[in-house]
Structures are given as C-alpha cells and as structure tokens.
Write a structure and sequence with these properties.
single chain, six-stranded mixed sheet, seven-stranded antiparallel sheet, alpha+beta, 21 strands, PmbA/TldD fold
Length: about 450
C-alpha cells in the first residue's frame, strides 16, 4: 500500500499520463492519519473510537480558475477520477486573477521532534488508564462529586504535497491530550472546572495533575455570586487570554482584512496595543501543536511578528491573499487545512504572546484590587471579529488587598479588541500552551478599565 508521499507522487505521475494541458497547474495534497479517542466514566471505559483517515485532494488551476476534488480511493482508477474531477471543476469556476499555486521555497525551516513513536506503541488500555488516572485524581479532591467527562485523544498525521510547479515536501507529527471536566458541589451549589495535559507522546502526559487542576478550578468557584457593576482591572488567566488572542488572530487574517471583515483593516504599521504586547505567529515553535516546516499548500512556515511594541506589523497570508495584496507581499506560511477534503485557507498556526514575570499569585498581588477571570461563556456569539466587540459571561474571583477573595459569577465583561490590547498593563510568567482555541501560548494578562456588568 502506498504511503502519503507515494500516493501524492503517483497522482502527479497519473496526471501526466492523462495528458493535462500545459496551462493547468496541479497540486496534490495527501494525508494519512490515525486517531484514537477514549472516554471513561466512573472508572470504566465508556467508548473507544479509532479511525485511519486517508486520502488526497487535488487543486487544479486553469487560466485563473480553480477547481478542487478529493478522494479516499487511492487506486489508480480512483486517482484518475479525482484528477479529472478537479480539472472539470476548474473549467466550471469563475476567473480570479489572484489564484495560483506557490513556487517551491528556497528552503524550509527546521523543527525537530514533531513525531514520536509512543502514540502508536501505547496500547488502548494504557491510553484509557491515563483518562482514568485523571478522573480518579479529581474525585479524590474535596467537594468533587462527579467527573462528567474524562477523555484521552491522540493523532498521528503524515502529509505530502507535490505540484506541477516543482514543489515536493513531506512531514509528520503526533499529538496526545487528556482532558476532563470536574463538578464540585457544596450546599446545593454546583460549579465545574476543566483540566488538561498535552504532549506529543502519551508518556509526556501528567494525568493526575490535570485531574487536580480540574477539581481545584471547580472548588474555588463554589458559592459564587454577582459582583458590583463597574470598571475593573481584570486578570485573564492563560485559558481566557488564549480565547481572546485566538479571536484577535482571526481578525488578523489577510482574508478577513481584504473582505472588510476585520477591525484591523487599514491599521498596518499603526499602534493597536500596549507597548507590552509582542504577539507572534510561529509555525516553527518546537512545542507548538500546529508546528510543521510547511503550511497547508507547501509554502515554508515562518515566525511572523504580528504586533511588536504595540504596533501592528503584519497580517497572516497564504499565497492567494499575498497575491491579492500586491507587490512585495509574500505568504507568511499560514495556509491551513482541516483535512484533505478541504481547500487551504488563511489561519493562525501557533499564536505566542511574550512572557512576563511572576506566578499568578504575584500578578494578583501587583494588581491589588480587581477581578480574576477564570472562565468565559458565550464566545461564539459574544465576539465579533469584524467590529472587534467582545461581550461574554465570566466566572472568577474578586481581587482585594492583593489577594483572591470571593468567587464571582452571573456577570458580563464588555470590551473590544483594540481597547483590550491597548489596556494590557502587566503579564505573568505563567505562560503555557492552550489547545482549546487553536494552538496558543500565553501568560496571564492584566487589562485595565474593563466594563463589568453585575449587580
């Protein structure tokens, strides 16, 4: 059976036999993956799901028209069929002067250790034991009544991209994650907390620590009540900061900017944030979940400064948006794909915020008076990338006298992207990778003068 690279090269060879015209440019994207997901409940395995998605996608560009087709049939007949379908789809598409395939880069950045053999070598029972260990650790903590879901999940992915433009590249990576949601109960009040641990190999996971994290997050919110309406200095823990920065980077997509759907349109090289803000998109970060030497269309992954010293330095580009932006603009290596079933589109790889100093406790002490935000609700409906408006429900704890005090819930935080970024006055030294909103590495952030609606 062919592997990803062999399948991609075979498809390109088949295209030559089919007599593809000189005006047609073809890109073959082959993906071979293995995934596993194991859910446990009350110390027993509830479900096991494994899959081996394999297939290839063909992008055809013919005189300014682009067509796409994909298949999981990797026989010669299946490959011929998908090649012909992609070319037929291109002929039926409208013309666009900016479409095209990337030329091979001069070189690719080096990033090692993206694939580990442990994912394949670890048995299902051993993987399930990690989810069980996380669940047991959470249940051992006071006030924790139940763990709603404890899950282990992993993937191994091998990708190859070849094209008639001379591009030929292959890569592989692995990933494993254990996460759980713990529920704590006291005097009829119920609160929940999320814990997780991640790595490229199951041996890297710290399941018990994830369980304790979930339990502690739930327990500290017991007895929460609304706080007074007002303007607060808020401390966003890394999980919440990651949600905000992930949304910000969505608006830094050149596609969103070019379509007039971004608050950052027309602000390139302008001040958009506090001078403390240094925000990167780094497709080559050694520990990044989205790291790879090449992006979803074979362009070289890069480290792109998005905001430095408060100034907007760059948007995120793929080949199409760079062409549309005009002379002097090149891809930043930010073409992403959900799978071989989809065309590439612009998106963030690894979003990294600069680190500050001190633990969360030290940050809280520096703030003195304010509000620690530990969770948010309503992200999908409460964040508008086009206008930058943010209005989300929050849970957390008041900061009084430099220490954490009573828990808070049923309140709303309202701000916008620019106000949030410009009002960052401090950063913690507690930076960590958050897999909940893409791949984001951020510390706790301190934001001044945020409107909070409570009682």
């Amino acid at each position: 059976m062919r592997d990803a690279g062999q399948s991609a090269r075979a498809a390109l060879e088949r295209s030559r036999r089919l007599g593809v015209g000189a005006s047609v440019a073809l890109e073959i994207y082959a993906e071979f993956a293995k995934t596993a997901s194991i859910k446990v409940f009350k110390g027993e395995v509830e479900s096991v799901t494994t899959a081996e998605p394999r297939g290839l996608g063909v992008r055809a560009v013919d005189a300014g028209r682009v067509g796409y087709a994909y298949t999981s049939d990797l026989s010669d007949t299946g490959i011929d069929r998908v090649l012909l379908s992609a070319m037929e789809n291109a002929r039926a598409a409208g013309e666009d002067p900016y479409v095209g395939l990337p030329a091979p880069p001069e070189s690719y950045g080096e990033v090692t250790g993206l694939w580990r053999p442990g994912v394949a070598q670890t048995s299902i029972d051993e993987k399930a034991a990690l989810a069980m260990a996380a669940e047991a650790a959470a249940l051992a903590e006071p006030d924790v009544e139940v763990v709603e879901e404890s899950e282990y999940t992993d993937s191994e992915e091998r990708v190859a991209i070849v094209s008639t433009e001379g591009l030929e590249v292959e890569g592989e990576r692995s990933f494993s994650l254990t996460y759980l949601m713990a529920h704590a109960v006291r005097n009829g009040d119920r609160q929940s907390g999320l814990g997780f641990t991640l790595g490229r190999d199951p041996a890297e996971l710290q399941a018990e620590r994830a369980g304790v994290e979930a339990a502690e997050k739930a327990r500290v919110l017991l007895g929460a009540a609304p706080c007074a309406t007002g303007r607060y200095t808020v401390v966003l823990v890394p999980e919440v900061a990651a949600a905000m920065l992930g949304a910000v980077c969505g608006a830094l997509s050149a596609d969103a900017v070019q379509k007039g759907r971004s608050v950052f349109q027309g602000r390139l090289q302008s001040e958009v944030a506090s001078t403390l803000v240094e925000l990167w998109d780094d497709g080559l970060a050694p520990d990044g979940l989205a790291s790879t030497p090449f992006d979803g269309e074979g362009a070289a992954s890069t480290r792109t400064l998005l905001i430095g010293d408060g100034v907007l330095s760059s948007y995120l580009h793929d080949t199409y948006t760079a062409s549309k932006a005009g002379e002097g603009v090149t891809s930043t290596g930010n073409a992403i794909r959900g799978s071989y079933r989809s065309l590439p589109s612009v998106g963030a790889s690894n979003v990294i915020m600069r680190s500050g100093e001190g633990t969360l406790e030290a940050v809280v002490a520096r703030v003195g008076e304010g509000l620690l935000v530990e969770d948010v609700a309503g992200l999908h409906s409460g964040v508008n990338a086009a206008t930058g408006e943010i209005s989300v429900g929050i849970l957390g704890r008041l900061v009084e006298g430099g220490s954490l005090s009573r828990p808070v819930r049923e309140v709303t935080m309202a701000t916008d992207f620019l106000s949030l970024l410009r009002s960052i006055t401090d950063l913690g030294g507690d930076r960590r990778w958050i897999p909940l909103y893409g791949s984001v590495c951020t510390p706790s952030l301190v934001v001044q003068n945020v409107a909070v609606s409570g009682t």
